[in-house]
Amino acid sequence: MIARQEIELRGTSETDVADVTKRVAQLVEKSGVQEGLCVVFVPGSTAAVTTIEYEPGVVEDLKRAIEKLAPRGERYAHDSAWGDGNGYAHVRAAMVGPSLAVPIAEGHLVLGTWQQLVVLDFDSRPRRRRVVVQISGES
Amino acid sequence: MIARQEIELRGTSETDVADVTKRVAQLVEKSGVQEGLCVVFVPGSTAAVTTIEYEPGVVEDLKRAIEKLAPRGERYAHDSAWGDGNGYAHVRAAMVGPSLAVPIAEGHLVLGTWQQLVVLDFDSRPRRRRVVVQISGES
Amino acid sequence: MIARQEIELRGTSETDVADVTKRVAQLVEKSGVQEGLCVVFVPGSTAAVTTIEYEPGVVEDLKRAIEKLAPRGERYAHDSAWGDGNGYAHVRAAMVGPSLAVPIAEGHLVLGTWQQLVVLDFDSRPRRRRVVVQISGES
């Protein structure tokens, strides 16, 4: 079976790190899938998905490393051409990636105890985000 | 059902960014899959897959960030041992990653409007690339 | 069909790069799946999965690039709060990512000849790691 749901996030501006673990876990539970796959995908080119230990220290550390990777203060060709002011967000999103595939085992995501699913919204202005959660497998 | 196709690319040298969205979307349409998963995988250790807004500014910005991550001018142990001259390409490919999983919803990839599927070829010489597109799900 | 197995690794400390290609390939072969998907996922927030040409030069080059991305010597908020001393490992793992989806074609992973599946253990102390290998598809 294949089930697809969407989660909606209201991002704040500049590398907002949202923990979506609970909401995704609830969708897995409701699906009844025991062995299968959960794909988390964020449509849009200024956001990304990964896992972290979701505590304020790691969140701060990750933001700093990402700022170094594609600093906001630099000149971006995207901004020169389009005036969007979010060229750095596009680069960050492409480097981290928009998709994550997590196996489901015995009805649960195989995440570590201190490993949370996070959506990183890099955009320069607050915006709504929809996140696609697709669950497939055997119930 | 599971269908597998290959796309062939003729890369130019040094971080060639190829937009494969249309070709992948056509394969999804031809497969008839309505709800499912599309996995794009690039065999080889000097190329990668991600999504970007495919416009010249973002392409230039991404190339610059990747150049900073693993600059071509540095000394690479791979080059010292093998003389390939593409040590930087190996590092870049490993960091971005060779695989992307995109859900299919109502017969279409759930990409954002300004989000394109791209294959990044980091190698130092022009070469042919095959990209594996695997589509599974329910029609 | 869906099969799930685990591989156990005994990591050494600091960016241990383990080639798991053979063990994953054996699981694919044993599963009998001809066309399908193999998802490799590492539970935990200080390890990651990607592909490289597994030879000492590339391993050294990749380690150096990752050290630059999140240097061990910097101050990490995670360490200040928790005293774990592995803040850099959390950042590295989040950037590379814990999951990889590799298509299976005609009974084999579609990896390139010089492309190996590797688990990167970034943690500061030696530890056991389990890696989840999920294989689905048609036999």
Task: Describe the structure using short key phrases.
homotrimer; 139 residues; alpha+beta; Jelly Rolls; 5-stranded antiparallel β-sheet; 3-stranded antiparallel β-sheet; 4 helices; elongated
Mean pLDDT across every amino acid position of chain A: 96
Choose one word for the global shape of chain A. Answer: elongated
Q: Total helix count of chain A?
A: 4
CATH topology of chain A: Jelly Rolls
What is the count of structural domains of chain A? Answer: 1
C-alpha Rg of chain A (nearest Å): 16 Å
CATH H-level name of chain A... which superfamily?
YjbQ-like
Could you give the distance between the termini of chain A? 8 Å
State the share of residues found in helices of chain A, binned by percent.
25-40%
Q: What would you say this structure looks like, in words?
A:
3 copies of one chain form a homotrimer. The mean pLDDT of chain A is 96. Chain A has a 5-stranded antiparallel β-sheet with strand order 1-8-3-5-6, with helices on one face. A 3-stranded antiparallel β-sheet of chain A has the order 2-7-4. The first copy, chain A, has helices spanning 21-31, 56-69, 77-82, 87-96; strands at 2-11, 16-19, 35-41, 47-52, 99-105, 108-109, 116-121, 127-138. In chain A, a hairpin with a 2-residue loop joins strand 5 and strand 6. The longest helix of chain A is centred in the middle third of the chain and has 14 residues, at 56-69. Chain A starts with a strand and ends with a strand. With 139 residues, the first copy, chain A, is of the alpha+beta class. Chain A is built from 4 helices and 8 strands. The radius of gyration of chain A is 16 Å and the shape is elongated. Chain A has a single domain, classed as Jelly Rolls (Sandwich). Chains in contact: A-B, A-C, B-C. Chains A and C meet through strand 3, strand 4, helix 2 and strand 5 of A and strand 3, helix 3, helix 4, strand 5 and strand 8 of C.
